[in-house]
Amino acid sequence: MKEKTALIRSALIWAVLAAAIGVPILLAATSPYLQWRDAIYIAASFAGIIALSLLLVQPLLIAGYLPGLSVYRTRRVHIWVGGVLVVAIIVHVAGLWITSPPDMLDALLFRSPTLFSPFGVVAMWAIFAVAALALFRRRLGLRAWRITHLTLASVIVGGSVVHGMLIEGTMETISKAALCALVIAATVKVVVDLWSRKKRAATELP
Question: Taking the complete model, does pTM exceed 0.85, yes or no?
Fold first, then answer.
């Protein structure tokens, strides 16, 4: 009975995650905005949507909330998903640069008139910073890595969510808002849980 309950719970968790990611992507694919866009712009847009979706997966992985994965495999998948996230951001930015170089240059130099641009750029550099620091994780030490990683992750999530919510484009509004809310909720829960675990471990020391 317990095994059956665990299997049902596991299936529900994966189903909810698949729906949270899949529904916004499917609705974006039906967006009327795509009718007047070329292939490069569409690829850039969906790369951004995928990147936002991966921000929901990452905290769930690192906290071990996704069932059926061992601790080792969870960490490995977290690293690989992080790499895919970096690639998605590069595709997103490169595609928009090819489509409109002046607009992207203004965004990167923080002189764009659009309100969503600076949040996206800050989140982008924070993602690149995490990827770069991951290469020197052992030199940083576990404590410094965790503090830096959590801080930058908070910047990434905050910047990405505001960036996404301010854009009126390919993504459908309600599904986008739901995805962003889930990303924030998952991140906050993971940060709180990790902090609680650390505090509990410190109090249990002799």
Answer: yes
